[in-house]
Each structure stands twice: as C-alpha cells, then as structure tokens.
Write a structure and sequence with these properties.
There is one protein chain. The chain has 282 residues and is mostly helical. The protein has one domain. It contains 8 helices and no strands.
Length: 282
C-alpha cells in the first residue's frame, strides 16, 4: 500500500504484477519457467466450469426448469445458434459447439477473478508463502497472463489446422496453401504460401493479445483504485480518497462485468469464425 514506511505506488503495482514461478527466468526465451499461479487458477476454474455444466446436464428435466437450468439452457441455445450460423457441418458441430460453450464459460470465470478485491488472495498467500518456502507473489486473473491467452489461441490454431486437413484432405489443404488467394500460377506459389502463413500467425497472435490486453488493463485499473483506498487518512484529502476509492471501485466493477462477459464472447466467436473458415475452400 502507499502508506507511510510501506511500498510506493510503483512498488505495489510491480509486486502485484509478479507471478509465482517455478524458478527465475534466465532469459526472455527461457521456456522452462512456468507461472504456477496462472496454471493453478486456470485449472481450478476449468474444473469449476465443467462441474457446473455437468450439474446442469445431470439435473435437466423435461418439465419447468429451475433458474439455474434455465440460465444454462439459454446459454447453450445462444452458443448453438452461433455455431450453426458459422460452422455449417453438422458433424463438426458435435465437437465445436461444446468446445465453444466450454471456452465461453471458462474464460468468463477466469475474467471474473478480476472482480475479487485486489489484495484479498495475495494477502492470504502472504501469510501462507513463508511456511511453504515459496515466493510472495500471487496473481489470480489467468486471462491477464499473456502465456495463458496465447496458449488458448495456439490451441485454437491447432484445432483449425486439424479441420483444414480433415475437411479438405492433406493434399487439398497443401494445394490451398500454395494457390490461394492470388491464383494457381507457379510464380505465385511463394506469395500465396507467405500470405497464408501471415494470416495464421496474425489471427493467432491477435486472438490471444486481444483478451490479454483488455484483462491486463482492467487489472491495472483495479490496482490504481486500490491505491486510492490505501492512501486514506484522517484528513480532508484522505477521506476524499477513501470515498473516491469506494465510488470508483464500485463503478468500475459494475462496468467490468460487461467487459469480462464481452471478452469471453468475443474469444468464443472468433474461435467459431476461425474453425468455420477452416471448413471453407478457396
């Protein structure tokens, strides 16, 4: 907090942006380093998402549904209608529709961790970490971690490549790589292949970066608002900061509910669009 003899505002934010890692990275390209906090919360929330969807399916009845079942049915129908409009293969939708539903619920839950008080779980970890001999770092919003969002987008890329080969055949897809979008003349093959590679890379990077950027910015704003509350004192300025902290925090949290839902929806829709494009022949 920005209190007397405490960390400065910059130190507070830098500490909260630090990850609990298995070791210190030796370089930027040290891929043996894992953000353990992101892996833990992403896995836990994935289990929670699957549990609630399983519970809804288990309790589904033909009669009048309860509130929980009705909410899940609305969500399932929304995702299924979007999938039907984009992926025209009924066979593919048997996998793609549940995938899109899982993505939406999972990312929504990961985004929703941003609504928890900034210092709540880090403060709990601060008391536990010394006993475990672990570093005093804990980030709880997996979707604000670039490695998580890029991992999700790369997974979507792998699925798209799979459907490209499945729908068009290996030979047909390779033919498309070298003949689209400019034509099948041999002189155009290098340019076609380069454009195809650029398209795959651009879609994958933008897919992951869009979610990361929005959630990272939201996390920073919550930290700045928390600093307002941490700087309060028994003075006119201090009391004003405390009141501003409450008002700004409440307003941003309410607005952020829209952001976390929208970002989950956008990621899901782009997944459907990219898989739908894998079904289309040029």
């Amino acid at each position: 907090m920005a209190a007397e003899n405490g960390p400065t505002a910059g130190e507070y934010i830098i500490h909260h942006l630090g990850h609990l890692q298995n070791k210190k990275p030796e370089s930027v390209l040290d891929f043996s380093v894992f953000n353990l906090d992101s892996l833990f919360w992403a896995t836990l929330l994935g289990i929670v998402a699957c549990f609630f969807l399983w519970k809804a399916a288990r309790k589904a009845t033909a009669g009048v549904p309860g509130r929980f079942q009705a909410a899940v049915e609305i969500l399932v129908e929304m995702v299924d209608s979007q999938a039907k409009g984009i992926v025209h293969s009924a066979e593919s939708r048997k996998f793609v529709s549940p995938l899109a539903l899982t993505i939406f619920v999972w990312i929504f839950l990961m985004n929703a961790m941003d609504l928890l008080p900034v210092d709540l779980i880090p403060a709990i970890w601060h008391g536990v970490a010394p006993a475990l001999g672990a570093p005093d770092y804990m980030r709880v919003v997996p979707s604000a971690d670039l490695s998580v969002t890029m991992g999700l987008s790369v997974a979507v890329l792998m699925i798209c490549l799979y459907y490209n080969v499945k729908i068009k055949g290996l030979g047909g897809w390779i033919h498309e790589l070298f003949t689209a979008p400019f034509g099948s003349h041999p002189l155009l093959w290098p340019f076609n292949f380069l454009m195809q590679v650029i398209e795959f890379v651009a879609k994958t990077v933008s897919h992951g970066m869009r979610l990361f950027g929005n959630m990272y910015a939201g996390e920073l704003i919550f930290m700045l608002i928390a600093l307002m509350g941490g700087a309060w004192s028994l003075s006119a300025t201090g009391i004003g900061l405390a009141i501003g902290h409450i008002i700004a925090g409440s307003a941003w949290a309410i607005f952020h509910i829209l952001i976390i839902t929208l970002q989950a929806f956008v990621f899901m829709m782009l997944t459907l669009v990219y898989i739908g494009q894998a079904h289309d022949a040029h």
